[in-house]
Amino acid sequence: AIFSGFAMVLTLLLVTRKVFKLEDYITIYHIELMNIVIIITGSIVGIAYITEFFIAWYGQVPAEQYAFINRATGPYWWAYWSMMTCNVISPQLFWFKKLRTNIAATFVLSIIVNIGMWFERFV
Fold first, then answer.
1. Which residues of the chain have pLDDT under 70?
2. DSSP string of the chain, one letter each residue
3. Threshold 0.90, pTM exceeds
């Protein structure tokens, strides 16, 4: 909830900043700090996804193992990998300061994170 909520706030902040001409008040520095939070929360979400797989494997419950393997390789594999790409891989692009301080890149990546969190509801 924190990850998707923060990404949505960032998306709306960028629009509000432009529409109401708040560039002097909401600076690139503020946006960069928000992008760092996106990196951290995206990494935490990635660790949670990996932990779910580990627990299914370690528990040795066949039904649970099947359910988790089916997520990644079953008929809806595309939704799972879209979710992983949007929620775990795309926020890692903010490690590059050039992207972290770019308004257009921030807007696009915050939308991608929101799309990924939407995919999570179906996986």
1. none
2. -HHHHHHHHHHHHHHHHHHTT-TTTS-HHHHHHHHHHHHHHHHHHHHHHHHHHHHHHHHT-HHHHHHHHHHHHSTTHHHHHHHHIIIIIGGGGGGSHHHHT-HHHHHHHHHHHHHHHHHHTT-
3. yes
